[in-house]
Design goal:
By secondary structure, the protein is α/β, with parallel strands linked by helices. It is built from 20 helices and 24 strands. It has 4 domains: 182 residues, Rossmann fold, CATH 3.40.50.620; 115 residues, Methionyl-trna Synthetase, domain 2 (Beta Complex); 130 residues, Isoleucyl-tRNA Synthetase, Domain 1, CATH 1.10.730; 113 residues, Nucleic acid-binding proteins (OB fold (Dihydrolipoamide Acetyltransferase, E2P), Beta Barrel), CATH 2.40.50. The radius of gyration is 28 Å and the shape is elongated.
Length: 656
């Protein structure tokens, strides 16, 4: 088993996740989006939102795929809560089956001991990732077993006892028809030979529901998403659906059948596992689910088997099956121990923090595969999180502290010069989440963050002499940080919660869509300075290798180890500090037709805005440079370029 460190265990205990059913958690207040918005109770089903992950198979330690699915599901659930939906987020563990029994035997443990160890690790990972689920279903629980037997009885009219003779895939725990076995050279996905078996089983009349399922998929485009997976399901349904074996007699680690059925059988692991969604919500409560978030490799079980079971039981179908892709390595290869490219999510979170990991998971459309690169993760942190959002909050708090006595200043008259388009942000984020597109959601919020940064630089409140005008600008700036923090809370709950408190805000009592337009803070509320939300992590050697974040990385650049421009020895190159900066202003060099003079914001950890010269005039217009993210060598001694003092060197595709 993968041992999780003391920090993971500590967080798990702090947030009450070991176990979840323990007494109310002590310690820090709940993070934004971890609880439903405190609005009047609404029993209207239109206001409920029920979302689930696929439950984790308790046969080994958690990996990147588990972390990825948990994060994107949690992001969607947090947004639903902040939007005023009565939300339930269900996850859990799939603890039965032959593979688990075999693994336990190989390790010299009982199956129960094995699954208990695995569940503890899964819960600790969820805690480390700040995954705020509402219920954790274990398929070994008495409640779940009872629900499985109830479902079995409801579908019993389509169940017959027959003998099966053929091929069995132990990895997938399913029978394989002769033609499919032959097509895959009688081996499973891992190259292990299929087993020839003869077994008496209960069979479910799956084919009886083929046309109904197909009609539902065709009539409801949102049922299977994204569209590529929907097309895949429709293609599956072009082939005849054979009877499905739903019991096993070759092992006993499973849910026993209801009275009246053969006591020597246990339920097929998939009818057992899928029923967890009903265990988490009785029909008439949260059921049907609004969204099952699943991996694309289990779409058949969810898009064909599950609807058939529900139809046979007379129960409504879930609204959407959202099928995410795999987490690949930086080169696009599937992670495997054989290739040696497996990334440990616990180590990544311990190195960079949960917010950075969560944000990176949401950088790409979850319907496709996610290429995981530690370098790309650091650049995303340094750019959008540190130079963008974190720097904006830091500036707002610092200005309010120095100019307004660390209080929220009064509003100005006719404050319609807003830092960003709030209505546009509401529309864009709502549209993204209706499609469960967390990447489009993140992109929309970051676009608003960039607009707020530009607004700040354009207005330059630090230069405004009239106190009432300056206060009006700073009030709008604090309001912008408050709103952006709420919208970012599903993605980066720790930083957003901290920022909310720093700008004098309180947890919202109304849904996001009902928040006022830049008038949510209380005049006179305390503004509190704190540590840098996201300290930039230096990227050494032109972005190839990474410096790990240091505990004191939030200091300014007064202790920077400067390197001469002309110093080209290997030792000096390895000492280069390359950080992400944002161009906030640019103008043509008055004495050179090849150079731009630029103001680049490197973030508070590197002294804020610097003037740097670049040779980009042959590649970009002045307007093209505004708000562009660039790499800057930040620890070079100042050098004059045609008389202009450049305090760093810009590295760009056009100049690299």
């Amino acid at each position: 088993m993968l041992a999780f460190d003391e920090r993971a265990a500590s967080i798990a205990l702090t947030y009450g996740l070991l176990p979840r059913s323990s007494s109310p958690c002590s310690g820090p207040p709940p993070l934004l989006g971890s609880r439903n918005v405190d609005v009047a109770a609404d029993n209207n089903k239109k206001n409920k939102f029920y979302i689930t992950t696929a439950i984790n198979y308790a046969n080994g330690s958690p990996h990147m795929g588990h972390a990825y699915e948990a994060v994107i599901t949690d992001v969607i659930a947090r947004y639903a809560r902040l939007s005023g939906k009565r939300t339930k987020f269900l996850t859990g563990a799939d603890e039965h089956g032959q593979k688990i029994a075999n693994t336990a035997a190989r390790l010299g443990k009982s199956p129960r001991t094995l699954v208990d160890e695995c569940v503890a690790e899964f819960k600790a990972l969820d805690a480390l990732l700040d995954v705020a689920y509402d219920q954790y279903v274990r398929t070994t629980s008495g409640e779940h077993k009872a629900r499985c037997r109830e479902l079995w009885v409801r579908v019993a009219g389509d169940v017959t006892l027959e003998k099966y003779e053929g091929w069995y895939d132990e990895r997938a725990e399913m029978f394989v028809k002769q033609s499919d076995a032959q097509a895959q050279n009688f081996k499973d996905a891992d190259g292990i030979p299929l087993k020839r078996t003869t077994e008496e089983c209960y069979f479910f009349a799956l084919g009886k529901y083929a046309e109904r399922i197909k009609a539902h998929v065709v009539a409801n485009p949102e049922f299977v998403q994204p569209e590529a997976r929907r097309s895949e399901v429709l293609k599956m349904l072009e082939e005849p659906l054979e009877k499905l074996s739903i019991s096993r007699t070759t092992f006993d680690w499973g849910v026993s059948l209801p009275e009246g059925f053969d006591a020597g059988h246990v339920m097929y692991v998939w009818i057992d596992a899928l029923t967890n969604y009903l265990t988490g919500s009785e029909p008439g409560g949260f059921w049907p689910a609004d969204c099952h978030v699943i991996g694309k490799d289990i779409v058949r079980f969810h898009a064909i088997y599950w609807p058939a079971f529900l139809m046979a039981a007379g129960l409504p179908l879930p609204k959407t099956l959202f099928c995410h892709g795999f987490v690949l390595d930086a080169a696009g290869a599937k992670m495997s121990k054989t290739l040696g490219n497996v990334v440990d999510p616990i180590k990544i979170v311990n190195d960079y923090g949960s917010d950075t990991f969560r944000y990176f998971c949401c950088k790409e459309f979850p319907g496709g595969d996610l290429k995981f690169s530690e370098t790309a993760l650091v650049l995303a942190r340094n750019g959008e999180l540190a130079a963008g959002y974190g720097n904006l909050v830091h500036r707002a708090v610092a200005l309010a502290t120095s100019k307004c006595g660390a209080r929220v200043p009064p509003r100005g008259s006719g404050d319609d010069d807003h830092p960003f388009d709030l209505c546009g942000l509401r529309v864009a984020t709502q549209a993204a989440m209706e499609k469960f597109d967390v990447a489009a959601y993140a992109s929309a919020v970051m676009a608003a963050t960039r607009a707020a940064n530009k607004w700040l630089y354009d207005r330059e409140p630090w230069k405004v002499k009239d106190s009432s005008n300056r206060d009006a600008i700073l009030r709008l700036l604090l309001e912008a940080c408050y709103l952006l923090s709420l919208y970012l809370a599903p993605l980066i709950p720790r930083a957003a919660t901290a920022a909310l408190e720093r700008v004098g805000g309180v947890h919202p009592t109304v849904p996001l869509a009902e928040l006022s337009a830049f008038d949510n803070l209380r005049e006179g509320a305390d503004v509190v300075q704190g540590d840098v939300l996201f300290a930039q992590i230096p990227v050494e050697d032109a972005g190839a290798a990474l410096n790990k974040e240091k505990k004191n990385n939030n200091n300014n650049n007064t202790n920077v180890d400067y390197v001469e421009y002309e110093d080209q020895d290997d030792t000096a190159v390895s000492r280069l500090a390359i950080v992400v900066g944002r161009i906030v202003d640019a103008w043509p060099h008055p004495d050179s037709d090849k150079l731009f003079c630029e103001k680049i914001d490197l973030g508070e950890a590197w002294g804020g805005v610097r003037e740097i010269g670049s040779g980009l005039r042959a590649y970009y217009s002045q307007a093209d440079l505004q708000d562009r993210l660039v790499l800057v060598v930040a620890n070079l001694k100042p050098k004059k370029l045609a008389g202009f003092a450049s305090k760093g060197m810009e590295r760009n595709r056009a100049t690299a």
